[in-house]
Amino acid sequence: MISRRLFIIGGLSSIILACNRKGSITAATATPAAGGTARISTVRLYSAASKGYIMSDKVIKSPEEWRRQLTPEQFHVAREQGTEMAFTGATWDNHEVGTYQCVCCGNDLYRSEHKYESGTGWPSFWQPIAPENITNRADNSLFSRRTEVLCSRCDAHLGHVFDDGPKPTGLRYCMNSAAMTFVKMP
Ligand SMILES: [Zn+2]
For the chain, how many helices (H) and strands (E)? Predict the structure, then answer.
């Protein structure tokens, strides 16, 4: 009787072991696939410097890595969905000709020719440099339905887009200066 119970227990643990082994095999075979996934997460982006579309790997870093690279305000806005105080950012009143890039990864986001005076105190644009360069995501925080705008290359939080902008798009991309770097271009 005892030996039979031991046999049953032994049999059960074999099954458990088999399951575990199966799980680990799955994980092991998934490793090359994970490498493949990294390749799949290549994104097609417009490059102002190249004056055309390029393929680029997504930029994925840990919060610690971002914290080392960014100032505390840049980190708070871009990696923690923060919002800078209106009329305090570096570029809300900037009228120079150039390109606004992601402060985290350098992805081109907006052109100065699409910037306009929204009166909000945040740099505002009526369209991005290319639709592919930004990503929209539903944001239901703060008891309101808004559309968050992120960098397509590194998922940095940039700001929000609203439908009260000027023609021709009727959109207002309300950005944070802290999430962008302005680069002068002739
Ligand atoms: Zn980025």
Answer: 3, 11
